[in-house]
């Protein structure tokens, strides 16, 4: 957890001011019992009304100063907690932007969400508790004991005995509760994972009538978390009455023994009241400190999980080349590229070599699992190749910054993803300064303009989360428009026409010819009708190229291509 304290660096002055207010609050709290004893001993016992009023006014000012210090300290602590948590969360978000897909897979989406939300929140809360509850505890204990010993050593020893009994019980119960705290965040991860799967996969769940099964899964995970939380609360439920019993026994002993000492003339009655208050204050702040100590292991577990994310060295790092400029043409080339996923036993792509020149459309086709979509992911450098290189305009993409590379690419992913914004903003996502005319032009080319204008609010229509209020074909066309408005050097269409009917697809392909211009286009497809007019068709089989050429050439020379064609096209 100490490694996260570097995020407190901008708040050093705030921390110092909070500590000052906390110190003033503690001193004021300790001084009030002494004033109470003075009023009883020198005012009430002697019948000196003027002394009572004079000391009472001073006590009132002390209380007001203590309260003001407490309020100011609490307010600053809340601001510190929010800022501290914000900075950690921002650092995690920035770090996540640097991750490759493999880096994300190491953590998991559900765990990443939990770490960025509840883990960071708990760290912020623990920081405030540490400042407001743990730091005053030793000051209160040491200061209270010093004042108690100054008034009466016998009474002070009663307070010390009470403290020892309390700390012993807290230690024994803490040994049981601390491991349970560490498990709580892991069990919360499991709940988030199942809940996320259930929400995203609700259509599949309903289609297969698996609602009861999924309810059982989430019930089991929730019951597991609840069982752990109940164990924690049972232990705390034992701790609090035990502490109250020790506190009350200590006060009873002070009143009983103190009364006898007053009768004998060894101490004054006001000192008994001060001792009882010191006993209560010391134990109260110790309770807060012990509760804080029990939360620290849970906070430590959260801190470890956060540090794990921040410590990951991104698999893909920016290159140092500064010489690649935007050109009037685009040239993409794969040179003996071999790629294997981190958890796979064999390479997905083996010794792949091909090129796509300016103004050309290169299509990639093959059976399921042949590696088509993997090629689309390697060009923007979502993964790092094991051997060989991918060249853009004669420069290895590993020598480019990721921003520089991706500025040259317009990607339409296999699964169309839209943001919960308006249609206009979703298309403009490809070019943040795009005008309305440019947005409409891209939509027309993507064959999306007609359905957009048929909506009540046109381009201002809202898109639900994930585009769930649009059909699959509509989402694909908006994704294509988002790529077209970018006017990139390289277009990548990763099976982006699968949800379109043949008539719409044909119009779209005709529009793309004029849109692509001098750029190069990579089209990954399942349907031969999508790629028949491509300048170059690459046929993949088990990660290897088994044919390159135009449609007519491959129909004569490539058996794999002929088999695909036979399953999709008529003899004619």
From TrEMBL:
Superkingdom of origin organism: Bacteria
ABC transmembrane type-1 domain span: 16-298
Cell compartments where the protein resides: Cell membrane
Transmembrane segments: 14-37, 49-72, 129-149, 156-174, 235-257, 278-296
Main location: membrane
Keyword Membrane set for record: yes
Ranges of residues in domain ABC transporter: 332-567
A Pfam family hit: ABC_tran
InterPro entries, alphabetized: AAA+_ATPase (IPR003593), ABC1_TM_dom (IPR011527), ABC1_TM_sf (IPR036640), ABC_transporter-like_ATP-bd (IPR003439), ABC_transporter-like_CS (IPR017871), P-loop_NTPase (IPR027417), Type_1_exporter (IPR039421)
Protein name: ABC transporter ATP-binding protein
